[in-house]
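Run log, item B.
One chain of 301 residues. Sequence copied directly from the ordering sheet:
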Amino acid sequence: MRQLSRKKEDQPVKGRPMLSTDTAVTKHHPGQATARRLRRTLQLMVASVCACLLLACASSGPLPPTTAAAAPKGEEHAHHTVALLGASGMVGEYLLREALAREYTVRVLARTPAKLAEFAGRITIIQGDARDPAAIAQLVQGSDVVISALGPVKSDGEAARFINTTATGNVLQAMQGKPISQYMVVSGAAVVMPGDERDLLGWWIRTLAQVGLRDELEDKQAEYELLAASQVDWMLVRCPLIDPQPARWPALASTRTPPAFRVRAGEVAQFMLDQIDARQFVRAGPFVGSRQALPTQRAAE
């Protein structure tokens, strides 16, 4: 009877495959299933981001709803005295060189004046820190335009947090009672303002910043809130990924959504200095971007 029972137990049940005694039964831990689902989700996100970036970089679609034209070559610019923060940074250096090319008077705040040694005799350098109200007050003295191209310096560590908000607060205070026409700020395309109508590219740019640049975005958003609450004429230039390249064409500008995923630093500089006199975006935050060369144009170069 025992042999018969054992044989019956060994018989496969109809509709169920017989398990081999040589095969180990794997027990799945709930955490493993969660990890697999997380990996699949991340893979899908990365794939989607890459697709969006490729579309953004290769797109040759229609121009954005608002396009700001640069000043025609050869046109004389009115003289201005520009107070510049962040002159040793990527966009800041392009701003400095472009301002000098237009024969503007330039006053620069620098913690390390030696970084600007090649401009000695052509600019006024005030040694100091943008977080110091006294240094900012000295910088803006005699200026009619203030431009900030500040960004956090990693080596500053925790001290770099909210550098833009702090500096802008100091600038707004220093501008009171002075004949300064406007304050221009280099900001990021992830900053949100009333009237935004972001397309898929604009949504992705903000999402990526929220994930990878949370502290910087919080600082830039708070900076905008300060400007919006002030009484001065300001312009917040919202940039996507900035390439360290000179200007090639006039920058594209839109008040609704980023017109491109990338922008050349030289085009940002030209756009901002053109707006000193054009004043198309007073108390507004235009998105800027660069027109990308088509394959046939790149091949011809």
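Observations after the first pass:
- The chain has one domain: 81-300.
- The domain at 81-300 is CATH 3.40.50.720 (Rossmann fold).
Flagged for discussion on Thursday.
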